[in-house]
Records
---
Amino acid sequence: MPFFTSRGCILSDPTHDLVCSDLMKDFDGFRAVDHVSFEVPKGSFFSILGPSGCGKTTLLRMIAGFQSPTTGDLLIKGKSMIGVPPNKRPVSMVFQHLALFPTMSIGDNVGFGLRQRGVARADIARRVDEVLDRVGLPGVSTRRIDQLSGGQKQRVAIARCMILEPDVLLLDEPLGALDLKLREHMKVELKSLQAAFDTTFVYITHDQSEALVMSDNIAVMNQGRFEQVGAPHEVYHNPQTAFVAGFVGDANKIDAKVSAVNGTRLTLTSSAGTEMKVEETGSSLMVGQAVQVFLRPEAIELSKSKDGIEDELNVSRCTVNAVLFNGSNSSVMVRDKAGSLFSVALPQTGSLADLREGDEVFTCWRPQKARCYPAPEV
Amino acid sequence: MRSDASKLGFYLLLAPIVLWLLVLIILPHVGLFIVSISEKIGPRIYETGFGNYATFFGEPLYWRTFARTAIMSILATALTLILGFPIAYYIAKLTRGRTKTTLFLMCMIPFWVSELVRTFGWMILLRETGVISTTLQIIGVISGPIELLYNDAAIMVGLVYTSILFMVVPLVTTLDSLDDSLIEAGYDLGGTTTSILREIVIPHAMPGIVSGCIVVFMLSLGNYLTPILLGGKDSLWFTGMIYNQFITRFNWELGSALGFLLLALSSAIVFLGLKLSKQSLSNTMGRA
């Protein structure tokens, strides 16, 4: 820990609202969070993305103060939060099922935090109306919680936290319980609320599209560790590990072996025997090494004839196995000569809309588009 | 044809409850009321009138016992709630799985024995030559034996002990349904343990609290065995007084009047309690 002389005496950057350094949490015999370090700049939207059971909820609960880290330090606005109880921390949390108090009216729910601080009654009423106005729900403060729709409850839960003007707002998969249409809508709304309040949001989710749409920065978490931290496009286009490549976005995974290395150009042979060219800079792969290749469905182009395709590309003749129509996300499953299945995005121009099962097509992709990682040792 | 059959089925299913209400509740009460408004003016000569009720109000011993029973029952209910709430909270919120079942069973086990035996257990503990008195003498806290039985405190101990289960069970049920994240949200928003208890836990548990209180209050008010055994002959409990009229004095007319007054009293206090706690009977009893 280079930054710290002792706990509480820090030289941290004041522009970071939240700093976690070497955070670790052990439950008897099981490590839920493993040496996690990250910084969240002031006013940004930070997402922690990972499959269920990866430790993201534990991490969030440690930031909120419901669990204490086994080792490591946690700083909010430069102050160590170790040993500070949740009701004394300058963070608020939007719970997974929102945890609105059903025995109180909406106004009492939103005003709960201010009442705990001993703010004058008239002042509370004014600020409750103000914050409800800001989340777009004016004049609902006398209503009951069960008179609201899912999206409105969401906004009340955020208003209840934002009225306290926290340094960091934690959100624990709050969109999980909503239906698809509303979820899409709330993604945009959450992002604009974050901009309007200009507060640091830390958002955890297992839904990659939520993370990609809303975040300034994403941390991809797996088995208690951060695999990669970066901007959404970076995480999507330049995944640093095989896990990130497989988890964020769709990808075709191909098991292969390196058969030749020529500078940055690798020649690989898949386990089914197909040869392909991959461009990989800065890797230390060697001939004979087992690798995993990840190829996005939209990186593969389809054409009905072989004419006009450059030699440079990886081309193979395939048959259509299934057409999966899903509006703008339509794709086809194709099977190559060696029998492996690939998912390929259908072009949205509609040029191949007449594709049917059993048709013959050519697939081609640029060597630069694939990502290649050493296969995990089994 | 088919609808006739289903109608018959409906009435057959309805019959037990109607019979129960009619034969065991309405008829005895009508009988009791008729007896209570008959004044005995000579051997086998009766006249209708409210003389028996007038006797009650005219005799201070009767209405003072009446008031004393009501106040002691309310006190016993309050004590049971104060003792039962932490127990219920611990069982419902702080334990899981096996421990929870075990603790719940441990609350239940004393109730497998009859109330009489349980009360005798307390007598063994509290009497002059009992366990507590003897132990205190052996360790030298007191020089001579002390009598812990036959006072109001002993009655209170007995009442709380016999009814605590009926407070704990509805409280555990309602507290179990309180989502832990509500408590966490309370802490997260800056609440203290007291304010969370006052603003989140108690409002949520209110139906359980009220239904537990109603049951415990009714049990205490109508208890006969515990006040007589632990409070002695002069325990001055209203049910004891009714017993005396019916069995010892053979004055069924006054006994019935007293019985009716007890019914009116319990109904009035339960009604008041519901109004004060802003709960409805169907809400509390339906949920617990």
Note: The first strand of chain A starts at residue 4 and ends at 6.
---
Amino acid sequence: MCGIVGLLLKNAALNENLGRFVTPMLVSMAERGPDSAGLAVFTDRDLGEKYSLFAQDAQFDWDALERVLDEALVPTPRIEAKGRYARLSLDVEPDTLRRWMAEHFPHLHVLSAGHFMDIYKDAGHPAEIAGRYDFPALTGSHAVGHTRMATESAITPAHAHPFTAGEDFCLVHNGSLSNPYKIRRRLERKGIRFETDNDTEAACRFLEWRLREGDGLETALAEGFSVLDGFYTLLMATRDELALVRDSFACKPAVVAETDDYVAIGSEYRALAHLPGVKEASLFEPRPEEIYTWRR
Amino acid sequence: METITDTDKTVRVDLDESSVRDLNQFLHHDLAASGVKHIEVLNPNGRHNIAVGVDAPVSVDIRGHAGYFIGGMNKQARITVHGNVGWSVGENIMSGSIRVKGNASECAGASGHGGLVVIEGDASSRCGISMKGCDIVVGGSVGHMSAFMAQLGTLVVCGDADAGLGDSLYEAVIYVRGTIKGLGADAREEPMGEEDYARVAALLDKAGFDHDPKAFKRVASARTLYHWNADHHQEY
């Protein structure tokens, strides 16, 4: 199993309510994925280079990290912390930061990098995680979430979805891939590094690599159909787009509701049932191997 | 269940107030003694397992979009969903009828032994998978691999059928009014006979659709998979 949810607000006046709308979507999918959860949230404006960080140590001293960064890497970093999670804003390239972190703070996990996206993910029940990081208070233009029922790799915050690669790109997955190691070996030969042994990470890094090589999202996904073997409903987000695909068997569910105000995606209709106007929304089930994209 | 109100032998259950378990326990244990003939279910909001395992000549109206397994294992009851349903509506239906006013997700009428399932809109993939004697009438189109391994009964599709229709069919028969994107292994189109026209007309009438039976095509098993053939080398 696993649950996926996504929400893209077409009406920017609703951006203040993004967290309030998407949190019940995520929590309603807890029965499909009770062991971990995550949420990627995008703003509609460029907030400069920022990173989502996750500390293994619950008592991690974020103030100390701020001081060390200020002295050793670049001046005036800004850290906003919520327990083990922190958003770090500072003007440094992702590769440089990742290298520096691996050397100086190996127990800090860099969850994501980008100018528009923050990622929260953790192990535990989705309702607890939503409370832990105050998901209802989040604002922005679009969000992608996942509740996980692990069927292959370990249950840890790093193995939770969304997975990211590069900047401002994330992916959630319901299903299982049968050739993740083949994809992984192909990408590792190109110098692409992996952080976990999770099958979804292979799909995420493959698609991000195609995007970086110049493919559009639709071209990358069309190639994904021939490269990714297994069962999947994949939901992806970039700074201004959501994309949804299902494999040729389409045995992992998804429902889409579209109104003038939003596009909402859930594994099941009950994830969408609380949204305003959903009863009058255009509702449909995505077809196998068809690419659906929505732009904010 | 406190929220049930008995008016002229009708009860109304609001699933925002009562649980699906409360509803189903009432239907399984208390219905016969209550004399209730009509149950109205409010705020289904995509919840699963609504009105499964009913075995009584009652009508159930579910007002809104419902989730998975609606009316599963139904006997005798006449269930209507005034909205869409998720996966496996009427799974293993034995008798009675289930009508969905909107669309149905995957596996509608899966394994059904008897009774009638009507989807007024579209049904998604694997509609009628492994059906064993029920009848299914779909007002719109069906998704891929519909009637996969269907053993007995009739699937009537008033719209189109997606790829892999009737893959590995046994003795169920499929009638399609629109276009068939592709037939599955061992399924073949056959000429319509008088019996077929009568069978389609009777089901359209029961389901309340007004189409000319002459517009339907018949798909049935070529029966080449009935016996193992080593020369096929697993390629059919």
Note: The domain at 5-232 of chain B is CATH 2.160.20.60 (Pectate Lyase C-like).
